[in-house]
Amino acid sequence: MKKFDWKDYIYKVVIVILISFFMIGVGFGAAEILSIEGNEEIYTPAKSLSPVPDTHDEIIAYVNSCIKIAYERMPKVDYSQSFDIDSNSLSVSGNGSGLPAFSAAVNHIIDPVRDAVEASYESTGIDFYSSNKSLVPLIKVNADDISGVTLSYEYYKCKMCNESVSVQDFSDTCPACSNKDTLKLRYNDVYTIEIFVKTESETFKNNPFPISDDIKTILQNEAKIYKLSKFAIKHDSARIYVEINRLTDKINKLEFITDSSVDTTIEYNDDPFEISCKVNEKSKLNFTWPGVSLNTHKLALEKKGTDVLKATLSCDDPLLYEVTWTSSDENICEVDEEGYLTAGKVFGNATITASFTFGDITYTDSCDVRVCVPAEGMDLSKGKLKLKIGETYQIFAKMQPKDTTDTLVFWHSEDKSIATVDEEGKITGVSEGVVVIYAISNDGNYYSSCTVEVTE
Ligand SMILES: [Zn+2]
Fold first, then answer.
1. 182 CA to middle of ligand 1, Å?
2. For residue 421, is it left (φ>0), alpha (ψ between -120 and 50) or beta?
3. How far is the CA of 245 from the centre of ligand 1 (A)?
């Protein structure tokens, strides 16, 4: 009778498994094998602070609620404007014999006009919460005045080449590395929201930063060789662009953007010329949220050592506010009202916290301070040692004083062909001879040695 050969059986099983993996590999591609083997990172999206707004009304309510938060928390707001004439849209027509020369001249003055309009805007920081209530109509979004809303925070990332791909550009093949089915859905921490405002609506008319009306004045002021006989501006579309951090509901950026068509008639040498062009105007608000940040969040001090922490405040007029400093354990580390630190006699960890209060809210940042005992000397557990080739011995470094906090030691063999030493101090005999093994303290100030004789 033939005995059951378990070894032969195991080989067959292993071969079947290997063939199966090969077939799966051919069938599904290398990317899928990677995920079967668990090499693919598990993606956990950051959770939004508030529920993700979905419908038209929910998005507008969310933007208004974030504006309300901004009024309460009083971020610093920087305001700027920009104006752009679309050169491609510029057209000049008329009957006068001077038209070609005039067209060339218009093309020539387009940049000076644009510069003059831009220079007429004042860029300024805005006291968002108290005086400038005129901001309210701009950013209080009335749902009836809106023709459409979009919110986006999703994108795709290629798990093979890490390329980011927008939702619009999504396909089953990565545009960068051409791998198939490698794009994975990801979420930005920031919502990008566009609110399309009806140009005949109150929300649009109440825009406290109307800039396009200035164009007429500037054109008239610039007109030294021509006469402006007709000026018409038509607002084609308007939108509010908002970026909000969905993890904190804080607005980063808010812009009011208008695209308009300008039609003018200019009289030059008594001949009328029609000029039309498209212009784009932007009123931009950039938000800096109040807070405090320290220059470092981890420090080590020696007994009686000193250092200083620097706190940077972000808010309107930070010089008006005082930082309060506290220590979680003054026996370990003291802090004075300027942020100067002095280590005490007790060794250990203390948390130093800087805080300041702005608009009834207290903001804090903290630094972990470790007060340590420096080494004052070092010995090894053995000064002389005999080893046979291939034999090992564990040697230990002893620091003085006994409570030295930094006990890290670097090991070094004078001649690795005779004996080696690993990171933990384990010595191995390699060949016949005598060699010195060194231990060096982490601060580099102390060392100790052991002479090792290796025999057959
Ligand atoms: Zn790719």
1. 7
2. beta
3. 27
Tokens standing for residue 278: 């498209």
Note the pTM of the prediction, 2 decimals. 0.66
Please state, in angstroms and rounded to a whole number, the distance separating the CA atoms of residues 249 and 51.
11
Instruction: Check: CB of residue 373 under 8 Å from CB of residue 404.
Output: yes
Question: φ and ψ at 23, to 5 degrees?
Answer: -65, -40
| pLDDT band, very low/low/confident/very high, at 32 (cuts 50, 70, 90) | very low
Residues 6+ apart with CB under 8 A from 19: none
Q: Is the dihedral of CA 31, 34, 39, 44 positive or negative?
A: positive
> What is d(CA 336, CA 308) in angstroms, rounded to the nearest whole number?
10
- Distance (angstroms) between ligand 1 centre and the Cα of 32 equals 14
What is d(CA 93, CA 96) in angstroms, rounded to the nearest whole number? Answer: 9
| Secondary structure E strands in 133-249 | 146-158, 164-166, 183-197, 227-245
The pLDDT tens digits of the residues spanning 129-140 come to 444 444 444 456
Write out the residues surrounding ion ligand 1, Cβ under 5 A. Answer: 158, 160-161, 163, 174, 176-177
Cα of 48 from ligand 1 centre, angstroms: 28
Nearest Cα neighbor of 354 from 377, 375, 328, 372 is: 328
Other Cβ atoms less than 10 A from the Cβ of 47: the count is 9
Alpha-carbon torsion, ordered 286, 292, 296, 300, to 10 deg = -170
Q: Are 346 and 331 in contact (CB under 8 A)?
A: yes
pLDDT tens column, 370-401: 998 888 899 999 999 999 999 999 999 998 88
Where helices occur in 305-414 by DSSP H, the ranges are: none
